[in-house]
């Protein structure tokens, strides 16, 4: 009987990249699409028992802020996750983290920095087991935004048990230790990634976060640049250029 040879398991970075094959990103703009996002947020937050205190609506006014970008993540054309990405500048300080950790965020902005603030992260509980790479897929727009806007930091206001994930994957630093957040009724901590410094290493370790410039323009560009707003954006990580030799050396 011939000996069955085991096939080496693909590296995790390749699994992440392959998981993008049936993913579409859609920038949310219509009222109908926002209603779908609100339902998904409620379903996800209720399952995790993290509904904001007194929550009556899963949409808020800063969803419609001029520097807010709300995305739906679709898998085989089904909405499975969502995230809101804010571009925060010294002249425009609106974002979720400002409401939770104002002193820390304003300190960054007073120093002249620009920030990316991902928030309203929600994943359909029914797909978490089926697609364990979904946290990476959902957070990918925050890295794309940091590159598009040439931001100095990517913020992460999260529950303390999740801090190790962000420190390991995004090489994030703790900015504010666990603190009770009154509007949520539980502890949150604030982390920040020095995105310009860690970008070469991040791209080398996780090719999923790579993207072509035109994909970033479709995700974050001014709608006036297009004849009609793009309905669907396909990930370009597979065709995006690999890190340069200089980036590779920096990442070692």
Characterization of this structure:
The protein is of the alpha+beta class and 252 residues long. The chain has a single domain (12-251), classed as Gcn5-related N-acetyltransferase (GNAT) (Aminopeptidase, 3-Layer(aba) Sandwich), CATH 3.40.630.30. Helix content is 35%, strand content 22%. The protein is built from nine helices and seven strands; from the N terminus they run H-E-H-E-E-H-H-E-H-E-H-E-E-H-H-H. It is globular and about 40 Å long. It comes from Rhizobium soli. InterPro entries: Acyl_CoA_acyltransferase, FeeM_cat.
Q: In summary, what is this structure?
A:
The protein has 252 residues and is of the alpha+beta class. The chain has helices at 12-18, 31-48, 96-100, 102-110, 134-149, 163-169, 195-205, 213-220, 245-251, and strands at 23-27, 68-75, 78-88, 115-123, 153-158, 173-181, 186-193.
Describe the secondary-structure layout:
Layout lengths: L11 H7 L4 E5 L3 H18 L19 E8 L2 E11 L7 H5 L1 H9 L4 E9 L10 H16 L3 E6 L4 H7 L3 E9 L4 E8 L1 H11 L7 H8 L24 H7 L1
Parallel strand pairs: 4-5
Antiparallel strand pairs: 1-2, 2-3, 3-4, 5-7, 6-7
Helix pairs in contact: 5-8, 7-9
Features:
single chain, 252 residues, alpha+beta, Aminopeptidase, seven-stranded mixed sheet, 9 helices, globular, disordered N terminus, disordered C terminus
